[in-house]
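Page header: ASSEMBLY MODEL / two components / 861 residues total.
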Amino acid sequence: MGGSLLKKIRVVVSLVFFTSFLLVFLDFRRMIPEDIINGVTWLQFIPSVLKFLNVFTLGAIGFVVVIVLSLIFGRVYCSSVCPLGIMQDIISWFSRKFKKKRARYFKFSKPHNKLRYGLLILTVLAFITGSVLLVNLLDPYSNFGRIITFFLKPLVIWFNNFMSFLLGKVNVYALFPVEVKSVPFMVFLLQLGILVVIGWMSVFHGRLFCNTLCPVGTFLGFLSKFSVFRIRFDKSSCTHCGLCGMACKASCLDVKEQLVDVTRCISCFDCLPVCSTTSVIYGTKKQLKKLETSSQKVETSGDKPDLSKRKFIFGTIAFAFGTVGVTKSQSRIQLQDTLKPDGLQVKKDTGFVTPVATLQSTVPEDREFPVCPPGGTSIDDFNYRCTACNLCVNACPSDVLQPSFFEYGLKGILQPRMDYWKGFCNFECTRCMDVCPTGALLPIEIETKKLTQLGIAKFIKDNCIVHTEKTDCGACSEHCPTKAVKMVPYEEDDRLVIPEVDDKICIGCGACEFACPTTPFKAIFVNGNSTHKIAEKPKEEAIQKSADEDFPF
Amino acid sequence: MKRREFLGKSAKTAIVGGAVFSLGGINQAWGKGVTSADMPYDLVAVKGGEPGVMFDLAMNAIGGMGKFVKKNQTVVIKPNIGWDRTPDRAANTNPELVKKIIEHCLAAGAKDVFVFDHTCDTWTKCYKTSGIEKYVKEAGGKMVPGNTENYYQEISIPEGKKLKTAKVHELILESDVFINVPVLKHHSSTKLSLAMKNLMGVVWDRRFWHKNDLHQCIADYATYQRKPDLNIMDGYNALMKNGPQGVSKSDVLNMKAQLISTDMVAIDAAAAKLFGAEPANIPFIRNAEEMHVGTMDLSKLSIKRIKV
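Prediction written out in full:
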């Protein structure tokens, strides 16, 4: 097979994967069926490993396929399947358009073996001892998910809103505006830091992220040592012209020594078409021997790491972790900032009479635990299973899932939680669990989900409108799908009714908290269950009244 | 006089300014609707049939949809689509009835029939599960979103006691004919959800109502000059308890009733009677009558009673 054809196939395959991932993460109208989403994410290495461990089904063996592929073809996963890898290629491709001619080319560099294997071992050890923090920060798929969700999706929605505004002018409602739900500032900043590191690496060093920081890249690189097909030099015909090395974004071709570092080669085939003497080939050992006249063996390089570069990389990692280590107090400030309900403030200077100012609620909610999404089973289990790809955040039709900062503590950073200021959990919906690629949200049946108690609503009478204003409200009970929040006679005024919570049938969906109009503190809020429980089914009673034949008037 | 704002929050001042500016023009678009003098009855009450059959009979009795909808006019229908619930749960307006209404409007020569609600549950799910989206499309109407603030324009309610301004969906302000199609149901905080309560779904900020004497705000909004030209109460399936969304099918009574009136207070009073409640005991009905929105004393009204 010709080298340029191989490269073309690689480009097409990678663009197909990349586009699929983009569509899945940018699907703000939630039109893509769950099965298709599962198909797209099926091959993702770390999610697949986790799903296999969490759910233990044959449907979760995507990672086995990746291992087999790597043993045969080398790191084709990194070049054509991994969305973050492809994204880096795109960044690097664009950036080269703006570079001076000489700076456009890549050059061979030595591997950072201690760093990459060290990080891989550290990540695995941390995982074994119960922390997915490193996995979450380094997993390429999850990083891609967050980058698209936090940075690209809002732009796409703004564009959609602009287009729907134009169409709306002619009463066409095929497009509709969608509210951009902003990500908490610190979460945004943290991911921006990671993006800057990855972006810098891809602009100046091609696939350096994949070959130093990415645990999947390092692991598959190790496997590639045994791969059947790989890039090899035909030393008999090679003229040391160096074109292949200049095309190699993995910086793994040592032209001087005619060596290929297969652990870093991502099988992108960029080197094949540039070689004027077809001395760089992709094939088996036998195929090479046929070509070669000399009997010299081709070996992988094992050079010592470059210290100055390593210093820089340690620096960037330290920076990334430094961003993580922001104090909790700052996250509280951020939390306060998000406590601005939409549309509550009545504008002044409108020319109209400003409506009566309402009292502010006074008692802060006493939240013991955050609310972990359905299927998470318990906060600890969930924190240990989720890689924070934010796919569920995108898929949730109610926008109740939001990435967390320190609500779960450091262990659950960036993982989704139920944010009842943004929305509430739809009673008849299991979409987050249906799309979760890691099994962090176990796929539970809809009937079980309707009884799964994520938390329990707590009523704060001193914040309640009925108590403070002496008027009817009942927004909480109205929104409650199980009527766990019911209105009972108010003891101080029998013409009014006030909410009361039945802990046994409350499922913690947050509809009451979302609907509660009091600010800055809610009069009813959901305190998370550290372990999800099963609520009782609401009692059904027949209606006393029957349909009359006659009119009562 | 269309003025749709996108990127809502960044353009708040523009919205306010535009609303003031646009009010004059909007007023001219409607206000020439059917007055009670044109109606042979103050209230039409039908019992014992399927939703479509009852509506046909009621329309016959008042002289057809042509009274309300003229050729080439635009119509907006506001059913209750508040909840992600199937039609048999009576949390939303019956989809067959909505379909029938659209057919009557189009037969009368309507140019466009729009349907929307500012839902409580996720709107896309509500539109779908309620069956209304499907039936509207079948009938030739257009489902319109009501999910973002951009669609809502600020208006003033001069007679309001608590609610003096509100942001109202542009279709209510722009359409020639406004048809209000509530479903008869129990409501945990307002006791009943009826025609006037259904109008909470045409405004953006409902939390303000809940905060500032809900019953009074409902009555206040009912005084706003852009009133429904026609109210059609769906009592085919009535939610008798655990309202406004219900917990199970055992909350639903197959009442097979339908009411039609141009008077929101009258239709709500009659619906309360059907439910088994005394209208005077429902504060928003009482408040609205005190503010001269309509008549709740049914003995003063001419009522056409039809049994299928």
